[in-house]
Specification:
Layout lengths: L9 E10 L2 E12 L2 E12 L7 H13 L8 E7 L2 E7 L6 H7 L5 H20 L12 E5 L10 E4 L11 H6 L6 H5 L6 H16 L12 H6 L10 H10 L10 H9 L1 E4 L2 E4 L7
Antiparallel strand pairs: 1-2, 2-3, 3-5, 4-5, 6-7, 8-9
Helix pairs in contact: 3-6, 3-9, 6-8
The chain binds adenosine-5'-triphosphate and magnesium ion.
The site of adenosine-5'-triphosphate has 22 residues, from strand 1, strand 2, strand 3 and strand 5.
């Protein structure tokens, strides 16, 4: 179901670190079209050989990412297999992961953050329409393709990355690290991901974006207790935004909003200076 890329056509450059069970490199991919040689910058994600039993899940992620296309979804070129190496070849995104960017650029405006949250809602809605559950939405898995340039009227632009190994394959320790992005019901049933799980993760990610990429609950030593006690993240100073995050991160799945409602609520939020204000959309009158 996916394009395979010859290992010989890949060039490996510098390491960009590690993910969950992966090693990440910048690289190049060579294609020959009409006898001409083309090279493309790529991101190479190699499955850690210690976890090669997860290859099916890893390729499943590559497969769905390469089968659908949306402006806010990262492009996956294909996979490459060489000996016991399993590699996902994807679009290289210049400004990297959003969590790091948010931490680095401390003075991003609220309009920047709201804009990015709307882009994430847009791709969330698209995935739901396609009946695809992502399962690993967080700021780390959002990549910044384009920076804002207000003087040129250019807005930031993000893409959602692949989910990686399915949570059902992850050990308890890894799952605990995913609190509060992972939906609480997934702790008991990691093999039963639903669209509602993605809604919870969306809420946690929006929280993260508005808190400059500071991981929620960093200081907590028992994250599990947080869910056991049905606690909530500290609410945003803007009521309507806090309300939306609260709905998404509702312990009762039935209270999590539809994508339509998420988009409608986000569209009713506008910014004024460095404040988020609520304004009823025209068609709600
Ligand atoms: P997980 O499945 O948990 O998301 P992963 O294997 O996807 O794990 P990440 O932790 O998401 O790994 O990514 C590690 C780092 O690699 C990111 O912080 C980012 O800096 C970089 N990175 C990942 N994908 C890309 C990409 N497509 N373009 C540029 N940089 C990337
Ligand atoms: Mg990732």
């Amino acid at each position: 179901q996916f394009h395979t890329i010859k290992y010989e056509d890949l060039k490996w450059d510098e390491s960009l670190g590690q993910g969950s069970f992966t090693r990440i490199f910048k690289g190049e991919k060579t294609d020959y079209r009409d006898g001409e040689k083309h090279t493309t910058e790529v991101l190479l994600k190699e499955l850690d050989p210690d976890h090669k039993n997860c290859w099916e899940s890893f390729f499943e992620a590559a497969s769905f990412m390469s089968q659908i296309s949306h402006k806010h979804l990262l492009h996956v070129y294909g996979v490459s297999v060489h000996g016991d190496k399993n590699i996902m070849v994807q679009e290289f995104v210049k400004h990297g992961a959003l969590d790091l960017y948010l931490k680095r650029e401390k003075s991003l405006s609220v309009s920047w953050k709201l804009n990015v949250a709307k882009q994430l809602a847009c791709v969330l809605n698209f995935l739901e329409e396609q009946s695809i559950i992502h399962g690993n939405i967080c700021a780390k898995n959002l990549l910044l393709v384009r920076e804002e340039d207000p003087s040129q009227g250019i807005s930031p632009f993000i893409k959602l990355s692949d989910p990686g190994i399915n949570v059902a394959m992850l050990g308890k320790d890894v799952i605990m690290h995913r609190i509060p992005w992972i939906a609480p019901e997934s702790l008991a049933a990691p093999d039963n991901l639903t669209h509602e799980c993605d809604k919870w993760s969306f809420g946690a990610t929006v929280w993260e974006i508005f808190n400059n990429g500071n991981p929620p609950l960093q200081a907590l030593n028992s994250k599990e207790k947080f869910y056991e006690n049905k606690q909530q993240l500290p609410p945003s100073q803007w009521t309507e935004l806090a309300d939306l995050i609260g709905q998404c991160m509702s312990y009762d799945l039935a209270f999590r909003p539809s994508c339509r409602s998420i988009i409608r609520q986000l569209n009713s939020l506008v910014t004024s200076g460095n404040n988020v204000i609520f304004r009823l959309a025209q068609d709600d009158h």
